[in-house]
Amino acid sequence: MLSYMASTMALAPALAPVIGAGLLLFFGWQAIFTLLALYAVAMLLLLIFAMPEPLPAERRQSIQPSAILANFRMLLTQRTFIGYTLTNATSFAGLFAFLSGSSFVLIDFMGLTPFQYGIGFMLIVAGFFVGSLVSGRYSHRLGRDRLLQYATLMCALAGTAMASLAFAGVYAAWAVIGPHILFLVGFGILMPQSMAGALAPNPQCAGSASSLFGFLQMTVAALIGTLVGQFHDGTSQAMALTIGLAGVLSMASFWCLARPASRQAETRPSPAK
């Protein structure tokens, strides 16, 4: 289910750059923020008037800060949760690095127009869409950890290939977009599987686990993504190196943290009844 949700979510970032480029071309940059404001108001109205609360009243709990903090403390000491969360967060950092630096690299350095950049971004997000469908299709057949083996390897190879091309002096749009399509296929497989791995052992605090998973994803990605800005030299090297580092760290997080913790949990004897 998470995989198919992710594939649906991919439609928004696929269409957004093309819509943004069209608004910029025909109406000016102010139109982008006007559309965002109108969209936000529309979503708020839908949330208030058209989205009922799905949780039955008898199962709802009042928000207790002490209980939430206790859940966070427990999750941060759970190797399974940390392993799968870092596997996702470090690979997401590769996407974050691309979002941070790709417009400067592809438009300012390589000379693409905003519309061409939007088309390239659309192709990249199509990779995420394909990966999400693959994840949903083969999750029962191959299992979570087998899919994560393939996905993290794909991210590491794609990121390393992009960095190698950049440092070899291959400054062409295909040398950035091509490897990142492969990276996003891997991330499309990886994201729902790592989320399932992090949340499945914690059904009693699924809300806390989900929120901490998202917080750590954004925090780690932001920290790694700052490398693009710190070391940007006008070429694609800093961005490509950061994406390569993100892919390698994702694979290392899976093999060194998530997989051992998962296997240990599977072999642990169940308590006697």
UniProtKB/TrEMBL annotation:
SUPFAM superfamilies: MFS general substrate transporter
Gene3D superfamilies: Multidrug resistance protein D
Keyword Nuclease: no
Domain Major facilitator superfamily (MFS) profile: from-to ranges: 1-262
Topology of the protein relative to the lipid bilayer: Multi-pass membrane protein
Membrane-traversing stretches: 30-51, 81-107, 119-138, 150-174, 180-200, 212-232, 238-258
InterPro entries: MFS (IPR011701), MFS_dom (IPR020846), MFS_Efflux_Transporters (IPR050189), MFS_trans_sf (IPR036259)
GO MF assignments: transmembrane transporter activity
GO cellular component, one term: plasma membrane
Keyword terms, alphabetized: Cell membrane, Membrane, Transmembrane, Transmembrane helix
UniProt subcellular location: Cell membrane
Major localization class: membrane
PANTHER family linked: CHLORAMPHENICOL EFFLUX PUMP RV0191, PURINE EFFLUX PUMP PBUE
Protein's UniProt name: Bicyclomycin resistance protein
Natural source organism: Halomonas elongata
